[in-house]
Amino acid sequence: MSVRIIRRTLDTLGTHILLLAIACLFALPTFWVFMTSFKTPREYYAMPPAFLPAQFHLFHYRKAFAPWTVNPTEMATSYWIEESAGRVESVTPQIINSVIITFGSVLLSLAVGTPAAYSVSRYRFKGSKDLSFWVLSTRMMPPIVTAVPLYWVMRSVGLVGTHIGLIMVYVMINLPFVVWMMKGFFDDIPIEIEEAARIDGCGTVALFWRIILPLAIGGIVATALFCVFLSWNEFLFAVILTDKDSQTLPVALSLFRQDRGILWGQMSAVIVVATLPILLITLFLQKQVVRGLTAGAVKT
Amino acid sequence: MFRVSRRIQPYVLIAPTIAWIAAFIVYPLIFSIVMAFKQFKLKKDLSFWDMPWVGLRNFEKAIYDENFLSALWVTILIMVIAVTIEFLLGLAIALLLNRKNVYGHSFFMMLLMTPMMMPVIAGGLLWRMLFDVRWGAVNAVVQWFGLPAIDFLGTIRWALPSVIVVDIWQWTPFVVLILLAGLRAIPEELYEAALVDGASRFQSFFKITWPLLAWPIMIVLLIRSMDAFKIFDVVYGLTFGGPGNSTTTASFYIYKQGFSQFNLGYAAALSWIVFIVVYTISMLIIRFLKPAED
Fold first, then answer.
1. What are the pLDDT tens digits along chain A (300 aa)?
2. Do A148 and B32 make contact, defined as CB atoms within 8 angstroms?
3. Are residues A24 and A140 both part of a single domain?
4. SS3 for chain B, per residue?
5. Which of A39, A157, B121, B243 has its CA 20 to 30 A from that of B69?
6. In this complex, is the C-beta atom of A36 within 8 Å of any C-beta atom belonging to chain B?
7. A132 & A249 share domain
8. Strand, coil or helix: what is A26?
9. Do A22 and B278 touch (CB under 8 A)?
10. B77: closest CA among B270, B231, B194?
11. B3–A contact, CB cutoff 8 A
């Protein structure tokens, strides 16, 4: 009997050790970039590079986000000398652009997509079954196919380099996910509640505003956060449709790619700040993020 | 008060979404067909109607464009190798995570999902740092084994495998998510019944898990295969298509044609060819992997 218990304990232990090793392997590069953002150039331009920084410096963050706090004499010390050669502009404007575009596109996607989701959830009409196919097909079509003509269309109406132009394109990217996810949440609301409200003389608009939306608020938040994830990280359309003044954070990141090496410390600091919001969302709402990521692929 | 008749209500609610699809997907796609048959160069003071028609010449050029064919080949190579490894690895991890004696499930998921959380371009840049020939962490490991440092991103031999490694790192967790959802959907009773009937672990895997997982497997292979044709950000951050054009993927080549050489017409023609290739491959996958309906 006890042999079986030992075997089972070993089996459990082995599974966990294996899983932990695999999970750490996947998380290691992210961890590395977090650590690099605090290191001095002497620590990351070394062979082998230091695994952990000796001291957690905020220098790279200050330089990337608040360059005015960096004292010129501090820059000139041999300690940070590698830094002084490269890019010195702050990426704060790009963060502001990213925030504007993300918020705008998320709000607009919800405004456009939620009624459609409600309609698909409550009424049976021709084509409503093709929804999952639509979600899947937008997921499969290479975005470059629409990006080429869209660039010309946007250019001819003067929307290249504007916030609103990119916001409208991101609504296009978010919409299938909004409709798909919100439909799932509306399906969970029992139709009896609506019928009762109708008997009490509730009009459609009031029904939607006062009864359905408050009940679906959890779903709306989840959907919104998933749209944040999509819009915040998008790169292809951002690089095509923005100019110097409307660049988003991923585009700012791509500028770190210079032919002769990269400013690793500063780049890591920007990567950390670009990743942190999404990482926090996933930390608290893992289930919802998974729901969005698998939208269209898993029957829920 | 303005009241919409109940009969047309569903259409009113869905109208904005339809309008969006029409304006941002259907219209550009139609426009793109027109572009593909014109010599569409981006120049100042040249309106759309001034661009000369060239008939099928853009498509003809594509067929003889060695760089384009190489980009297609690179894409298909990435697709086959990366998707195979991601699928096997993802299946193994999903099966491990689905074991009944696993605790701390969401902790493992959190760690596994970190690669998907950062902008893809950041993933490319981050691995550029790790793959660096002089100070990269990967080369630190290589040298620790006593081997000479490898110039991962600067040599044709290693650049493509590097891109594939990054793709695997970034998207295996996605495969895990989908397959795990599929595994969770299999009713527990089936395994219990199999156990009662004296089935071995292997038997219950191949007779229960595998057939019931057929649908998620097809979906995940479909999505990941199509994603290969989307690869753009990673290449942009990691190698910028080089050295030579050894890591130039289809999407990246179209981008370069359209937005650094400004041959928008040619880029449109190329993207239609890519679209046809993507469509054919997805139809083949559905044809051969679609599980029989009950």
1. 688 888 888 888 888 999 999 999 999 999 999 998 888 877 887 778 878 888 888 888 887 787 777 776 666 665 555 554 455 567 888 899 999 999 999 999 999 999 888 888 887 766 666 666 776 677 778 888 888 888 888 888 888 888 999 999 999 989 888 888 888 888 888 888 888 888 887 777 788 788 888 888 888 988 898 899 889 999 999 998 988 888 899 998 888 876 555 678 888 888 999 999 888 888 887 877 787 777 766 654
2. yes
3. no
4. CCCCCCCCHHHHHHHHHHHHHHHHHHHHHHHHHHHHCECCECCCCCCHHHCCECCCHHHHHHHHCHHHHHHHHHHHHHHHHHHHHHHHHHHHHHHHHCCCCCCCHHHHHHHHHHHHHCCHHHHHHHHHHHCCCCCCHHHHHHHHCCCCCCCCCCCHHHHHHHHHHHHHHHHHHHHHHHHHHHHHCCCHHHHHHHHHCCCCHHHHHHHHHHHHCHHHHHHHHHHHHHHHCCCCHHHHHHCCCCCCCCCCCHHHHHHHHHHCCCEHHHHHHHHHHHHHHHHHHHHHHHHHHCCCCC
5. B121
6. yes
7. yes
8. helix
9. no
10. B231
11. yes
**For residue A275, what is the domain's CATH number?**
1.10.3720.10
In chain B, what are the domains? 59-289 (1.10.3720.10)
Mutate to test the interface with A, among B4, B14, B33, B50 (most CBs of A within 10 A): B14
From chain B, the residues in CB contact with A258 under 8 A are none
**Is A293 in contact with B226 (Cβ distance < 8 A)?**
no
Taking residue B279's Cβ as centre, other Cβ atoms within 10 Å add up to: 14
In chain A, the residue whose alpha carbon lies closest to the alpha carbon of B30 is A149
pTM for the predicted model, two decimal places = 0.87
Co-location of A78 and A116 in the same domain: no
Q: Rounded to whole angstroms, how far apart are CA atoms B139 and B85? A: 23
SS3 state of residue A161: coil
Q: Which chain B residues are Cβ-neighbours of A282 within 8 angstroms?
A: 110, 113, 117
C-alpha–C-alpha distance, residues A258 and B128, integer Å: 11
Hey, how many other C-beta atoms are within 10 angstroms of the C-beta on A231? 26
The answer to whether B178 contacts A298, with C-beta atoms less than 8 Å apart, is yes
Q: What percentage of residues in chain A have a pLDDT greater than 70?
A: 85
Look at residue B1 in the predicted model and tell me its pLDDT: 39
Residue A65's domain comprises: 2-84
> What ipTM describes this predicted complex?
0.86
Domain total of chain A: 2
Give domain status of residue A68, yes or no. yes
> What is the maximum alpha-carbon separation in chain A?
78
pLDDT at residue A262 in the model? 66
Instruction: Residue B174: list chain A partners with CB under 8 A.
Output: 293
Residue A299 belongs to a domain:
no
